[in-house]
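Lab channel / #folding
Pinned by the channel admin:
"Please post every new chain as: sequence first, then the structure tokens as a reply. Keep commentary short and put observations after the output so the thread stays searchable."

First post following the new format, from NK:
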Amino acid sequence: MSKTNYFIEGLSAKNEKVILEIYQNIFPKVKSFILKNKGQQSDAEDVFQNALLQLSVRYIKESFEIKTSFEAYLFTVCKNLWRRELNKSKKWVTNDNVIQLQSKEVDLALATLEQERWELYAEYLKTISENCRKVLQLFFNKVSYTDIVEKMGYNSETVVRQRVFKCKTKLTSLIQKDKRYKSLIEL
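Reply from TO:
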């Protein structure tokens, strides 16, 4: 049994030894990431617990394959959950009479949906050309067109804009042809 299967199956079976091993090996890295990104110890604990719950529930519901290491996969889930929390906190208005609009179950379902969307995107990103991948990664990381011209050796920003458009169109087309796409956009 691979280490990834060992972790995901142990987590789903609520094997305390496996869960403790996951905490010991992966939690410190997640905690470090969250502390460096406007979080606290309690935030790291919450995010890690939610990520484990999300993975466990999703694996029990529909067994899926993790194509990277379990550690890398869980870390990505935690990063996505933490970014989601940061985005939600930007939208909060301070008020003494705050009403929680979403239940934990709805929030977990939305986080799972976002993770599945991310996996679909990442899967098809690997199928496009290396050049397109690099251009889109720079673009999505908000690197300026001027810097992309320099890094990629293009002649002008116009060429970069055209390349970004063509690569995004190609990636979008591939994703939309996937049978999972329709179920991931509906909510």
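NK: The chain has a mean pLDDT of 82.
TO: also worth noting, The longest helix spans residues 70-91.
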